[in-house]
Design goal:
- The protein is of the alpha/beta class and 286 residues long.
- The chain is 34% helix and 15% strand.
- The chain contains eight helices and nine strands.
- The protein has an eight-stranded mixed barrel, surrounded by four helices.
- A hairpin with a 3-residue loop joins strand 2 and strand 3.
- Helix 5 packs parallel to helix 6.
- The relative contact order is 0.15.
């Protein structure tokens, strides 16, 4: 037979121990060191960053994210002509102020993929023209969503067409780091080269002009294998936020335009045409 006094003493010790452990647990939760921001609980998968909405991309978005800012040009050469590129993110652009600041040419985002049109396109495209600028349109490529041929048709049908009026620049294929997923849109270098070729050939067939290719050297090397087959026909618009355009992709001996900053005055993205205003006009005239 168990001793009643011993049983009672055991129950008292268990209650005391349980109370101590409960208090210790409470103190631990109050004073625990927080885990790193965004770090999932042990055993849980990492939380993926939310990707931007399709259609929200703009020229240089991927370049800034992947390559960053390495400097700014230290001066302006007399044989370079200042320009800007804009998208819906800029809203109503103060074109008279840009004109007075010395900007003489502009490119406006018209389309992305085969479903997005810039809602600010009218004010931006017509507004730049109305103050005297030579302007053109660009297409943000999404090679993972549809073919190059389909996107060239969509671009030409929704603002990317060319007119021989001396004031309209040829359309631009903006092909750069993917802001929505894998850097090369899930394509091998040979597949990417085929996609770009389909776009540029279809655009030329539709408009009579060779599309300008906007890209960065790093992306081009990684995603096309530094393919050299477009330099003979397609002008190059190089993207690099530094003190110089730097090395160019294979196939191009020189650049036609250079996007050198995403933080310029009035609108962020500023560019330099590698030549005089007369040469900008010559490109527009074809």
């Amino acid at each position: 037979m168990r001793n009643p006094t011993a049983v009672a003493d055991g129950r008292i010790r268990m209650l005391a121990t349980g109370g101590f452990l409960a208090a210790l647990s409470l103190l631990s939760s109050l004073y625990a060191v927080p885990s790193s921001a965004g770090e999932p609980p042990p055993g849980e998968p990492p939380v993926a960053e939310e990707s931007p909405a399709r259609g929200s991309a703009y020229m240089g978005m991927g370049v800034l994210a992947h390559e960053g800012v390495q400097g700014r040009p230290t001066g302006t050469r007399a044989a370079q002509t200042e320009g800007v590129d804009v998208s819906s993110h800029q809203g109503d652009v103060d074109w008279p102020a840009l004109w007075k600041s010395g900007v003489k040419w502009a490119y406006v985002k018209a389309t992305e993929g085969t479903s997005y049109q810039n809602p600010e396109y009218g004010q931006q495209y017509d507004g730049s023209h109305d103050v005297g600028m030579i302007r053109g349109a660009y297409h943000f490529a999404t090679p993972d969503s549809s073919s190059g041929t389909a996107q060239a048709d969509y671009f030409a049908d929704h603002g990317g067409a060319w007119t021989k009026d001396g004031r309209t620049l040829p359309g631009v294929l903006d092909i750069e780091w993917n802001p929505y997923g894998s850097a090369c849109y899930g394509k091998t270098p040979s597949q990417m080269v085929s996609w770009v070729r389909d776009f540029t050939e279809r655009y030329r067939a539709r408009t009579g002009r060779a599309a300008v290719v906007y890209t960065s050297t790093n992306w081009w090397k990684q995603c096309t294998g530094d393919h050299a087959g477009f330099g003979a026909a397609n002008p190059l618009w190089i993207a690099r936020y530094a003190d110089s355009p730097g090395p160019l992709p294979a196939g191009w001996a020189y650049h036609t335009m250079w996007q050198y900053t995403s933080t310029g005055p009035i609108v962020g993205d500023h560019d330099r045409f590698n030549g005089t205003l007369e040469q900008v006009t010559a490109l527009a005239e074809g």
